[in-house]
Every structure is written in structure tokens, then in C-alpha cells.
Amino acid sequence: MDVVVVVAVIAALFVLIGVAEPLAGRLRLPYSVILAGLGIVIGAAASFFLRTDLTDALNPVAEAILNFPVRSNVFLYVFLPTLLFQVTLGMNLRRMLDDWVPIVVLAVVAVVFSTVVVGWSLSTVSGLSIVTCLLVGAIVSTTDPSAVVSIFRSIAAPRRLARIVEGESLMNDAAAIAIFGLLMGFVMQGVPDPELGPALARFPLILLGGAGVGVLFGQAAVMAMAAFGRFELAQLSLSVAVPYLAYIAAEQILGASGVIAVVAAGLTVNVSAPGALSPGTWQNMREMWDLLAHWSGALIFVLAALLIPRLLEGLDWTDVGLILVVTAAALLARALILFGLLPALARLRLSPYVERPYRTAILWGGLRGAVTLALALAVTESARVPDDIQRMVGVLATGYTLFTLVIQGSTLRLVISRLRLDALSPLDAALAKQVVAVALQSVREDVSSATENYGLSRDIVRSEAKSFGERLEGAVKAAENSAEILDRDRVTLGLIALAGAERDMILDRFRERAVSPRLTERILSDVDRLLEQARQSGRLGYRRAARRAVGIDPSFKLAVRIYNRLGISYPLARLTADRFEILLLQGLVLRDLDTFIDTRIRRIHGRRVAEILHDLLEQRGEAVEQALDGLRLQYPGYAEELERRFIRRTALRLEKREYDLLFEEGLIGVELHTDLLHRLDRRFSREDRRPALDIVLQKAELAKQFPLFSELDEPTLKRLSRALVTRYVDEGDVIVTRGSVPDTVYFIASGAVELRASNQSWRLGRGELFGQLAMLTKSARRAEVRAIAPSTLLALDEERFRRLLRRSKAIQTAVRKSAEKRGIEVPELERIAKRRRAAEKREREAAESPDKASKAAE
After folding, report:
1. Which of 64, 529, 540, 851 maximizes the CB count within 10 A of its CB?
2. Is residue 31 within 8 Å of residue 21, measured between CB atoms?
3. How many Å apart are CA 63 and CA 49, to the nearest integer?
4. Sheet holding 791-797: strands in order across?
5. What is the mean pLDDT of residues 92-108?
6. Residues 668, 674, 677, 681: what is their CA dihedral angle, to the nearest 10 degrees?
7. pTM
8. CB count, 10 Å around CB of 431?
9. Pairwise CA distance, residues 43 & 62, whole Å
10. Spatial separation of the C-alpha atoms in residues 199 and 182, rounded to whole Å
11. How far apart, in whole angstroms, are the C-alpha atoms of residue 603 and residue 434?
12. Which parts of this chain are annotated as the region Disordered (predicted)?
């Protein structure tokens, strides 16, 4: 095909993409459905003009459209990596992990189950071989990421629903394409009843190999982009190459899953790039990929839709019946997973509960699109597949795709509306009227003062004021007549608003380079959890999410375990430094939120609700400050370095703001402004490098500051610091269970614990120890010890503790006091004291004997 014709067709496609979006908005239909419809119309029109005798003038255009060089490999190697990579870059991984069980069930289990159900159903009515029917089942079992994601975003679906659907559509391509490749090999070999064992044995290589290739390419790309420093265009160009290189390397070199490789590469860049690139570069990269994915998603739909008339040639009523069988079987299989398996897993507490309206929306939102058509096209293009199988696979896959796009896609918005997933709750509807009334009152005051300054005509001002007053009066009456909102509900709404304000403040800090993009993503995911928990469970959910945000997460505990057992300190040092920065930022934002409550929330919800929100913020602030104090006690020198760095970054941010203001006011020119910003960028780059944290050195400093170790000499203290094992526990964690063997003593470096035994309880804080009494009395532990705040403990084994006890009078005193408080006798402690008194007596006698000898000599 002539190059000019190809370029003209591509340009026409972009015109079509530009027209489709406003058309979709006007018709209130999903964008992808409009694109598919336009593609089908164009493809059908081109076929019509080639066959009709009405005119030959449009034949060159029709031939260019129908013969456009689009094959299955174009979809799989050009468009699919772009879509997958962009979705992974935009994912909030921490929030996605909250629903990882339903996502994996839908992405893997549902695909396998649907393949089997569709294949078995089709084989019973069609007369086709079971392998061919299973191949059709694999092709129609994968939801299309571009179709699903665009539709759920366009209808403003609830965040959690959109997350589950996006996660499923992202991951199930790998499972479906892997099964497709396996079955396609059997079809091309003409094996009617294949042995699946050897083929299934390759699945670990397909999945793990793809993941390994993706991580390798993603990490290499991040390292290269970080090395390029200020060359942003080079960094963006490298990011474009990553998904394609990973896909090709996995598929062609290793024989693994290219889809898994792209997803793994995207996740690796998502996790590593924010900490390696500047905030501006990371933001620009995501915006660039949003645009690339928009074009890819649109082109993939249009080009795939152009093929539909060709794939459906010779359609008869038998084919329609088989399409209906495939449709019914696929919907049934998906329904059984959604309404059977997921609720069962939730009842067994193996999965978070997914609400019934969400499951209904997921069932109807499982759209098929270009991925399904691309796989079907790959079958029709293979010369090793018999012609009758080529035709049947093409017809069935295309027919089912049309059903999901035309029927499900066009009615999905209606289904969401009927499920009331896009509607305001009665509480929000009542609040909306009050918000409008309060907002209009503020607007009236501002407009009144503004019109006086503008010097406008009094008649015009009076006329507009009257009109505005009527609107305000109507809003006030509507608010007065609305349903009464309980204080409990007002607190919930206030917490939601508070979480939204917290998110905005964090984003402002990110734009001002006060916090790195990597940590910003983590903090924002905690804020999103605050918002969702407040919306679901009110004050209780907000508190639960706030405790989780301050607490010790599993990755931190894993890093501690790695350090304690293997002596590898880097992961723990990195996560500890992250925790420092996050807590510092949380403390600052919480102080600003107090002002937000007084200036905004109080006006809508009243004084009582504002006081409750202030109390909740105060509790959060105390928890953050307690956690920070614990870190400062553990790492005093490092805490000071980080706080100094934070002040320097704040000063640079304010300096940049001053330069921008001077430039906007015209007091400095563009050349000077640019030069000043370049200087600031260099200083920002120096401050972006966080000081290193030496865990081993800091542990020795912590032991030196511990009150019970204060009398130890330097060599003993160094040996002790090497023997102490750091253990971090979160609020509610059980440290010691009743009846366990006493082999460890714990010293509380920060935080607090509670001992419970025989309807009694004791609370211990920083500087105290526990676990020693059961060890010294050689009896099973009679108390359960539970953390009542995020705490840091220093653990010491029995042998070293006994040696330390014999040497340290301070520890002996502490053990004696704790025994007296609990009414426990410790004979061994008395023996140690007796030996110490005897040793002291001998020392005194030895000191006195020279004096006696000298007196006798005199």
C-alpha cells in the first residue's frame, strides 16, 4: 500500500478519535462503544462500496480501509503493551493490595473456569473438538483493559469498584493468553485429545519467566533514567522503550509471557521511579503515558472494529445460536464466580467482602474488545489451522465481542444507575442543600464587596442582587425543609471532607518538592484508606485507618526479620528513613487541618461536630508524635539530620515561591528567573539525597541511652548492643503468650505494653523490662503481654541476660521492684544479691588489710 495512503488513513483515524469523544458525551454512551460502532460502520461501508455497482469512485478508499496493514501481531506487540504499561503506572499498588484476593480470583480462577465452562457447553452442541471449544473459551474469557477501564472511569464508578475491575482486566490477559498459546499449539498439531500435563508443567516458566524479565527491564530502565539526571526528554524516551523491549524479550527469547513481563516492568517502574526521578519528570511521564494510552486504546478499538464485518462473513442462524450459547456460558461462569465463590471466600474470611451491587456491576461490566478480536484474528491468520476452525473461531469470538460492546457496554451506565452506585446517598443529598445555602451566603458577601470596588451601575447591581437573593432564599428554604442530619452522620461527612483536604495538602507539598513522589504515593494511599473507612464505618473506621497509617506495616516487619536473622540492614534502614519522613509530614499536615476545621467544616456542620473532629485530630497527632518520639529515641543523630534537611527543603521551596512572585510582578526578567531556578534545582537535587542511616551504629547509641544500661562500661555496652535484637510491634500485637517457655527478656525502648494475668493488669513504658520473672523462677509464663502502642523492644536471650543481671546493680533493682509489685519471690535474685554482698565484703576486707598491716609495722 502506498505510503501516502497509509498516512492519510492514519490521519483520518485520528480525526475519528477526536470526533468520537464529544459524540460519546452527547449521546451519553461509553467512548469505546462509540469507537467500535464507528469502526463497524466504516468497515461495513467499505465492503459495500467495493461490491456495489452504484459507483467506483470510492473503491480506492474502500480498498485502503479494508487492506490496511493490521494483523494480530500489531495489536499484541504495538497497542497492548502501551495499554498495560500505562495502567500499571497509574495504579495505587497499596490500595490494590487491599482487594488482591477478589482481583486474583477474577483474573485467574474466573478465566480458567470460564474457559472450561464455555468449552464444555460449546462442545455439547456444536460437534467441534473439545480442544477447539476450549480455544474459543480462552479467547472470550479475557476482559479488555481499554474497554473496561475507560467505561468505568467515564461513569464515575466508586473507587473500589473501579480498582477491582481495573486490576482484573490488567491481570487476566496474561492467564487467557497463556491458555490460548497452549491450546493453539494443540489445534495447529491437530491433536483431538491432548495430554495437558507436560504443557501445564511449562506454566511456571511462562509466568515466573515473564515476571523476571519485566522486573529486570524495569529496574534497568529506572537506573538508566536516574543516571541521565536533568535530561528529561531522554528519561521519557527510555520509558517508552521499556514495555516493548520487555514484551519482545519475554516472548521471543525466553518463551515466557510478554503480558506478565510488561505488567512486571510497569509495577517495577511504578515502585522505583518516583524515588529516582524528580517530581516534575515523574508527573510528565505519567501524563505522556496517559496520552499514549488514550491513542492506543482508541486506535485498537477502531482498527479491530474494521475487521468485524470481514470476520462475520457468511453468518447464518446456526452461528447465531452458537454465539448465544457462548454468551450464556460465559455469563454463567462469571456469575458463579462472583455470586458463589467470592461470597464463600468472604464467609471463610479469606477475602474482603464485595458488595452485591459491586458484583452485579462487575458481571455486566466484563466487556470484551480488541484483545479478544486479536486472538481470534491470530487463529484466522494461521495457515496450520483448518479453514472450518478458522471461520468458527472468528465468528464466535467476534459475535460475543459485539454482544458485550453493543448490549452490555451501551447499558452499563443504566445498570450502574439502577444499582444506585452513581447516586448520592440520602445523607449526601440532604447535605448538598445545606452546602449550597452556606456557599451562596459566602458568595453574596464576596460579590457585594467586589461590586463596590468595580464601581458598577447601582441599578444593575440592585437588579442582579435581587435575582441572587431569590436564589439564596430558595436554597435556604430547601435546606430547612430537608431531612434532619444526625450528628453522627455529620461527623462522618466531616471526616470525609477532612480526608479530602488532607489529600489536597499532601499534593501541594508534593508539587513544592517537600516530599518525594514515592513517599507521596504511599501517603496518599493511606489517606484514601482514611476516606473509604470513614465513608463505610464513620468515626470507628477513621480511627482504625489512622492507627494503620501510623502502625508498623508488614514490609517493615519483614525488613526487621531480615536484619535480625541475616544481618542485612539496608531494607530496614530505607524503610525506617521513609517512616521518619512520612511521620514528619503527617504531623505538619495534621496541624494545618485544625485550621481547615475552623474555617470550613464548622460553618457547615456546626461547633459540636468541629469539636469532635478536633479531638480525633488530636488523637492522631498524639499517635504520630509518639511514633516520632520513639524514632528520635532510637536514632537521635539521624532524627536531627532529617529535621535539618526538612527545614532546608522548606527554605528552598519558599525561596522558589519568592522568585516566581517577583517574576510574575515583572520585577525580574525571564533570563534572570530561569537562572535562579536552575540554581535552585541544583540545590534541590543535593537535598533530595537523603542521609544514610546506619542501623548498627544507631542501635549502640540507643543501648547507651537506655537507663538500665547506664552503669555499664564501654566494652560491655558494645558487646551488649551486638547481642540485643530489635523487635518492632504494633498496637494490639501479642508479644508474649500465656504458658509459653520463658527464654527471652524484653527491654522497652519506646512505646508501652500491658501485662495481663489472673484478672490483673500492669502497664509498662519506656525504660522498663518484662519477661524476666518467669525466666528467673523457671516457670511457664503466667501473663500475656500485648502492645498498647507502636513500640520498639530490645530482646535479649536467657544466657546473656543472666550474665548481665550478675553485673548490673540497676537491672537487679529493676527486677526486684517488678517482683515486689506483682508479689513474686525470686530466690535467684536473693542468691545474686548475697554473692554481691559477700564480694563487696571481701573487697572491703582486702582494702582494710593493707591499712592494718601498715599500722602493725608502725
Report:
1. 529
2. yes
3. 9
4. 725-729, 791-797, 744-750, 769-770
5. 78
6. -170
7. 0.62
8. 22
9. 8
10. 7
11. 10
12. 835-858
Report the amino acid identity of residue 676. Answer: L
3-state secondary structure of 297: helix
C-beta of residue 126 within 8 angstroms of C-beta of residue 133: yes
Handedness of CA 395, 400, 404, 410 (dihedral sign): positive
HEC readout, 207-249: HHHHHHHHHHHHHHHHHHHHHCCCCHHHHHHHHHHHHHHHHHH
Give yes or no for a contact between 607 and 537, defined as CB atoms under 8 angstroms apart. Answer: no
Residue 41: per-residue pLDDT: 81
Q: How do residues 468-512 score in pLDDT, each as one tens digit? A: 777 767 766 665 555 566 777 778 878 888 888 888 888 777 766
Q: From CA 64, how far away is CA 76, in angstroms rounded?
A: 22
Q: What pLDDT is stored for residue 701 in this prediction?
A: 65
The topology under which CATH files domain 72-202+302-418 is Na+/H+ antiporter like fold (1.20.1530)
SS (H, E, C) 794-846: EEEEHHHHHHHHHHCHHHHHHHHHHHHHHCCCCHHHHHHHHHHHHHHHHHHHH
- What is the distance between the alpha carbons of residues 630 and 582, in angstroms, rounded to a whole number? 14
Residues near 538 by beta carbon (within 8 Å), at least 6 away in sequence:
488, 491, 492, 495
pLDDT tens, position by position, 701-741: 666 666 667 666 777 777 777 777 777 777 778 888 887 77
What is the chain's Cα-based Rg? 34
Retrieve residue 316's grid coordinates. 447464518
* Mean pLDDT across 353-363: 85
Q: What is the pLDDT of residues 569-584, one digit of tens each?
A: 778 778 888 888 888 8
- State whether the Cα torsion 670-676-682-684 is positive or negative: negative
* pLDDT tens per residue across span 160-219: 777 787 777 777 777 777 778 777 777 777 666 656 556 566 667 777 888 899 999 998
We find that the CATH architecture of domain 697-825 is Sandwich (2.60)
**Torsion sign across C-alpha atoms 565, 571, 576, 577:** positive
- Range name among 364-368, 708-712, 756-760 with the lowest pLDDT average: 708-712
9 in Cβ contact with 65 (< 8 Å) = yes
605 in Cβ contact with 490 (< 8 Å): yes
- Cell numbers linked to 474: 430558595
Q: Name residues whose C-beta falls within 8 Å of residue 188's C-beta, 6 or more positions apart in sequence.
A: 382, 384, 385
- β 744-750/769-770 pair status: antiparallel
Q: What is the DSSP string of 636-653?
A: HHHHHHHHHHHHHHHHHH
State the CB neighbour count (10 A cutoff) for residue 19. Answer: 12
Give the residues across from 224 on adjacent strands.
Answer: none
